[in-house]
Amino acid sequence: TGTHGHHGNQVFLVIKGGIRSESRGGEPFGAETSLDPGSVGWLDALGPDAAHDVGNTGDTPMEIVLVTIK
Fold first, then answer.
1. Are 33 and 19 in contact (CB under 8 A)?
2. pLDDT tens track for 13-44
3. Which pTM does this prediction carry?
């Protein structure tokens, strides 16, 4: 996804699932996470100090809808 932050809290809906990985500062951050189709969740806002890059390490394309709460 490219390095980015989240300037507001977000709700997400997984359309097509996959295996999510995250890195911060070019280093792996946290464990890989399996996201199943139809699952929903909450993401807290992340400032510039928590900028991260998210990727799909699974074998199939992943689609997620993010809605920023203002």
1. yes
2. 999 999 999 898 888 888 899 999 999 999 99
3. 0.80
- 48-59 pLDDT, tens per residue? 778 888 889 989
**What tokens does 45 get?**
């806002």
Q: Which residues have C-beta within 8 Å of that of residue 8, sequence separation ≥ 6? A: 45, 68, 69, 70
Nearest Cα neighbor of 64 from 32, 23, 16 is 16
Q: Which residues pair with 43 in a beta bridge?
A: 10
5 has which bridge partners?
Answer: none
Query: Residue 18 and residue 35: Cα distance in Å, rounded?
Result: 5
Q: 24, 51 in Cβ contact below 8 A? A: yes
Among the listed residues 4, 59, 5, 65, the one whose alpha carbon sits nearest the alpha carbon of residue 40: 65
